[in-house]
């Protein structure tokens, strides 16, 4: 019967759950899958989430379908491990998130009015989440923000949470002033302090840059991903141009590569205009 389920392409999530059970079976499963734990699978979970974001950024919808499946598998993997340890089951996880979504949307599933702005709905959402944190004995304003988030994303979340209780600059000009101050302190650390002090000052500067992005309503992770992609694209064009000359980057000068970079940059701007 289990084989029938595994081979039934119409069986949906139950098929995937059964596949995972078979993979994790201590007697007949896959040795690699049997060895995995929450800790060993977590890096794959993070990687798959980024690959979903990458497919979305590239608007590659067939690729996104596959990546979403890979990400779903991560949830199934973790819940299988949790079920084996007696912590939770896939169904309890589904129940938990379903209950949470219903509770956080009283204007959809309850008797609250839907006639309010997106801004008001965001405030209501945060109030509900704050009440949930109180129920979990998370009393501090910054409690509950995951430690293992990418540092730039965690900085943004920390700043947003602090801003909700009034700890924030009133306008972007103060943030810009702080960037100048922190940049100066980094230069001072470079000139007269040790490496550890430079690391601290660089962290301060990056933290304020994240704050500037927040004040400008920019996702700093998205902005940096776009710049990474732009750099990759432009440097690839430099390599292509050099190859046409029978050269590689290590065979050329900085001036030559810089000139090619500016040509690529000018060409991209012309294409956008």
Automatic annotation (TrEMBL):
The kind of enzyme this is, by top-level EC class, is hydrolase
Record EC number: 3.6.1.9
Give the domain of life: Bacteria
Domain NTP pyrophosphohydrolase MazG-like: where? Answer: 36-109, 175-234
InterPro entries, per the entry: MazG-like_dom, NTP-PPase_MazG-like_C, NTP-PPase_MazG-like_N, NTP_PyrPHydrolase_MazG
Decide whether keyword Cytoplasm is in the record.
Answer: no
Which Gene3D superfamilies does UniProt cross-reference here? MazG-like
User: In Gene Ontology terms, what is one molecular function of this protein?
Assistant: nucleoside triphosphate diphosphatase activity
| Keyword tags | Hydrolase
CDD domains this protein is in? NTP-PPase_MazG_Cterm, NTP-PPase_MazG_Nterm
Entry-linked NCBIfam families: mazG, PRK09562.1
Q: What is this protein called?
A: Nucleoside triphosphate pyrophosphohydrolase
Gene of this entry: mazG
């Amino acid at each position: 019967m289990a084989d029938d389920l595994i081979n039934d392409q119409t069986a949906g999530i139950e098929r995937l759950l059964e596949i995972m059970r078979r993979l994790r079976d201590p007697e007949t499963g896959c040795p690699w899958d049997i060895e995995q734990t929450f800790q060993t699978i977590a890096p794959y979970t993070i990687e798959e989430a980024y690959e979903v974001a990458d497919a979305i950024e590239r608007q590659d919808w067939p690729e996104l379908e596959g990546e979403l499946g890979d990400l779903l598998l991560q949830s199934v993997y973790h819940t299988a491990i949790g079920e084996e340890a007696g912590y939770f089951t896939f169904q309890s996880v589904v129940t938990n998130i379903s209950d949470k979504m219903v509770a956080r949307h009283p204007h959809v599933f309850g008797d609250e009015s839907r006639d309010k702005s997106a801004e008001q709905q965001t405030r209501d959402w945060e109030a509900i989440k704050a009440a949930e944190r109180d129920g979990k004995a998370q009393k501090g304003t910054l409690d509950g923000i995951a430690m293992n988030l990418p540092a730039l994303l965690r900085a943004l979340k920390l700043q947003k949470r602090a801003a909700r209780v009034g700890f924030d600059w009133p306008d972007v000009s103060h943030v810009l002033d702080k960037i100048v101050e922190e940049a100066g302190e980094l230069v001072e650390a470079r000139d007269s302090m040790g490496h550890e002090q430079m690391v601290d000052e660089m962290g301060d500067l990056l933290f304020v840059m994240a704050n500037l992005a927040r004040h400008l309503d920019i996702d700093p992770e998205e902005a940096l991903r776009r710049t990474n992609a732009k750099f990759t694209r432009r440097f690839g064009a430099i390599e292509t141009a050099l190859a046409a000359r029978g050269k590689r980057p290590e065979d050329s000068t900085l001036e030559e590569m810089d000139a090619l970079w500016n040509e690529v940059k000018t060409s991209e701007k012309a294409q956008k205009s």
